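Input for the complex:
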Amino acid sequence: MAIDHLDGRLIALLAREPRIGVLEASRRLGVARGTVQARLDRLQSNGVIRGFGPEVDPAALGYPVTAFATLEIKQGQGADVREHLAGVPEVLELHTTTGHGDMLCRLVARSNADLQRVIDRVVGFDGIVRASTAIVMENPVPLRIIPLVEQAASEE
Amino acid sequence: MAIDHLDGRLIALLAREPRIGVLEASRRLGVARGTVQARLDRLQSNGVIRGFGPEVDPAALGYPVTAFATLEIKQGQGADVREHLAGVPEVLELHTTTGHGDMLCRLVARSNADLQRVIDRVVGFDGIVRASTAIVMENPVPLRIIPLVEQAASEE
DNA sequence: CCATCCACTGGTCGGATTGCCCAGTCCCCG
DNA sequence: CGGGGACTGGGCAATCCGACCAGTGGATGG
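Predicted:
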């Protein structure tokens, strides 16, 4: 499993300018096109790069409010709760965490008022004992990966 | 701000198979190529689609452990804390939330032991009063957007 | 020290796709 | 009823993609 310095530069380049093709990337990186192709193939089969899906902004879709909800689950109801939450479109991700056999999920809503509806729908399920919600006010560091990639590339 | 049914199908299609081009997409959707191009242009200038950056898997980079840390900040130290956390590569995202004037951040680490190092680095800063960490065990719902897109498209 | 393996280079090839243009049609809205 | 917007279907040159190949350099292992 590689991730050498060239891989790091390639990923960073693609993150900055996703639209450029293999040819242009090889020019920028100063290597042959075949090299870039080989690296990309390897990174993708490695699973380092999962894909190049579109990044959709929930706010632009009409869901400008983000919140994180911590859920307390009734013993043995984990699977049911997972299934229930997977069926709620406003649940963007769900994690089970240490702590209290709890779960943490990311929610979006159309407004603060709409958030109430979403939360009601989320917690309106038998397996969920209690929920505590934190509404996101600001997002000083949006989801990012480049710094980590660069660290991994330099440590190698 | 649009997001009609065709937009929804287009986004879903691109999410499922990001490698297909405009031409292939137009074939799948049963519309003219120019239409797909126009829709894509609009979605991107709308900001609905932010871009097509590579999705990098931290686990494949050697950081298989994910955690969420809730931070309690000393009054008036917000800006400094933000800057500090932005400089830590293992901090993948950072939010300020309601609740206790707190922050929530997503961390990754090489191992549970390494997580201790990361947390020490995160909280080893004057403005941070207290931190509570939840380690992610499972991720039943990975970050997703399609269900929301489909809901937005059908409601329109 | 030598043979081997591997990654990279620099080049070519045909096929496919892209970005851009256009005229014509349809349909909604004022 | 007229106009504007969106979509269609077509065409154009330029570009890029994926694949392939021989040659080279460095690292590895015997």
